[in-house]
Amino acid sequence: MITQPQAMATPTPDPDEGRRRIQTARLLAYRDDGPLTHALAPRLGQGLPPVPATLAALLAIVAVTAAGLLQSGPILLLPVAIALVLILPTAPRDHLGRFDWLTPPLLRGTEFLAMIAIGLAAGAPKWLLFVLVYVVGYHTYDTVYRTRQSIWPPAWVFHAGLGWELRLLIIGVGAALDIVTPVLAVLTAYLFVLFAVESVTSWVRLDKASAQAGADAEQDLEASPEDALEQATGEAEKG
């Protein structure tokens, strides 16, 4: 007996899957993880819950700073160690929890606090710390603004920007070696050029593409019905 083959049932797509995927991608972009985190994340298993771990790191650095433990020497690496030990293992998580949207602001606050605490304890110029915080803050704002318009920054800029972990590690090592001011100056200049040039270039390219699309649309509207019919006929013949 020959039976008619049954059509295989296709699974119904989950309407929330796309939203969750975009939410995860955005939060991971807002984290601004660098090459060190991306290299170690696959080896960290499921990782730590991002919000509790990041909040614990922030409070621990606040306590260390308030207790006056940050003096000159290797002790200045303590805030960096706290951030790396507690925050880096949160990278493998999918960031789909109800409160996981708090992770990026908590992480950025931890990074800024550690930068300022280490820099001030090492005698770095306050204006230089302000400029560094501004540059990193601008990069964060630019990333948020772009992704909300579905314009994703290229992956290479996050690696070239070193990520929060390598930025803190470089500052901590510079402070421990008593060369924090030149280290901050070079790091700030490098990040400023990188983020500014990449951002301006991307927005100019986008403006040109938008202007070209607008010009093409305006040209189509201004075309006579006869010209439009002739153009459509020519394209059909070519096809």
How would you characterize the overall build of this protein?
The protein is mainly α and 239 residues long. Helices cover 71% and strands 0% of the residues. The chain contains ten helices and no strands. The two termini are 46 Å apart.
Counted by DSSP, the helix tally is: 10
Task: Provide mean pLDDT, rounded.
Answer: 83
The helix/strand series, from N terminus to C terminus, equals HHHHHHHHHH
* Separation, N- and C-terminal Cα atoms: 46 Å
What is the total tally of β strands?
0
Low-confidence segments, ≥5 residues, pLDDT <50? 1-9
Percent helix range: over 70%
Query: What is the global morphology?
Result: globular
Radius of gyration: 25 Å
Let me know the largest β-sheet.
none
Structural class designation: mainly alpha
Query: What portion of the residues fall into strands of 2 or more residues?
Result: under 5%
Can you give keywords for this protein?
239 residues; globular; disordered N terminus; mainly alpha
Task: Give the SSE map.
Blueprint: H1 15-31, H2 35-40, H3 50-66, H4 78-87, H5 103-121, H6 126-148, H7 155-160, H8 163-176, H9 180-222, H10 225-238
Helix pairs in contact: 1-5, 3-4, 3-5, 4-5, 4-8, 5-6, 5-8, 6-9, 8-9
Task: Compose a concise summary of this entry.
By secondary structure, this protein is mainly α. It is 71% helix and 0% strand.
